[in-house]
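so my prof wants the structure for this chain in the tokens format not the other one, which i didnt know existed until like an hour ago. anyway here's the sequence
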Amino acid sequence: MTLLVVLTVLAIALLIAELAIYLYIVGSQLTRIATKLESSAEVVWAIKRNAEPIESGVERINNTGRVIAGALPLLYGMAEGIIVGATYEPDPDTERPPATPAMKRRRTRLAEAVGYTPGGTS
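here's what i got, hopefully its the right format
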């Protein structure tokens, strides 16, 4: 009977030791998490402090955007009227010649910049 009691006490002691080790590990991890959360909270509060002066500007920008959005249908109608009167329509009876290049031979000045002229004197 004493052997059974000793083994039971030993098992309970091992269980308590395992729980203590587990709690120590979890506690250290929670401490690290709390430290990181605290630094994150400081960053969030700094962002909030920096964003407070911007709020009034955002309201003005939103109001301006609403005004522009309200004027878009009117502007679109005016643009349609301008385009109808200003669209070029070529005469269908005349035949157009093929397009010609604007210049004959493309010339580079990079060689001249270093003192070399191809086919000429320097």
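also thought this was worth mentioning. Residues 2-51 form the longest helix (50 residues).
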